[in-house]
Amino acid sequence: MDEFTENAEDVEVIYLDEEIDESVELQEVEYNNDQSEPVDVAKVTFTKHSKSVFCCDLSRDGQIAVTGGEDDNAYVWSTTDGSVVFECTGHKDSVTAVCFNHNDELLATGDMAGMLQVWSVKEKKLIWCYEGDDMEWLAWHPLTNILLCGSHSGEVYVWQVPQGNCKVLTSHGSACTCGQVLPDGKHLLAGYEDGYVKLWDLKAATVKWQFTDSQVNSLEINSDGSLCSLAPSSTLLKINDGKVVGKLVVEGEPEIEAHVFSSELNLLVTGSLSGQLCVWDLPRQAIRHQAKLDCGVTMLKLGLNGKVYIGTTSGVVYVCDVRTGGLVETFTGHKVDILSLCVSQDGLSVLTTSDDETAKIFVSQSTT
Questions:
Q1: pLDDT tens column, 70-83
Q2: Whole-prediction pTM value?
């Protein structure tokens, strides 16, 4: 087992070289019972929100952040000193999605009631708006100014922005809970509340295949668009035909909360609200590393050089190396649940938001 840094008493990692040793039992690890405030190691803390901060994104150069929250507000602010660049006004419900487009010229903000707004980052002004059905998710196309939105009624809207031309991927009567454009830019994989997963041809607005799971809350796609992971079931699908590859769960843990591919290393990392954290070898569908935290896993994001960032219900963010299973860094400062997390493209800084009404910028001290 790899040695941890001195502030990592609350995680135990077991390294499994070959086959899983069924005789190994992970021990529950006591979280630090010290009731004092956690040491805040954040470089910047943003405090303009007055309620929980649900979502965030970083510009490609890492110079500006955007956050949205339960206070019906979204702010664009400097990651250097936390000063407000501009405020995205006009939302009438909790802002649950914020995202920069592929070249950082446009910013989309969306609230639970279905108001979508697109802002010119340079001009700091609203350039497009739409009000529709309750929003489930919002995302930009990775290559062009096309905005996609999944709705509670099940339709997926595909807009050209700012022209406003719209295509609708029809509903079968269940909320579309998640969606992601494939790396080829031509297809969308969408998941639905009733367990359906559909591969859409974006140009033709037709379904190429569909698969039924028990429920789909989120999905992740690997970098070449060949595999998809579904949560909470942890089912793996081949994207070309929708066939099941496997189901990556451990005994007693039927569901996962978060998941992320490390495509370069052919691994999948999964985490659950019980604190179970697993690194899976995809070709063998076997566990390479396994850890048990005494707090739940809420978020997983991949960084550079095999790092994975783990948001938790305790407000702590752990940085682990999926290659070794070792803990690299620990970011403290939030008091309660991490609700969203974004890693800068250079891998040097991390933006987090929390139920404690703040957003924070942490700077990595690890260079490998």
A1: 999 999 999 999 99
A2: 0.89
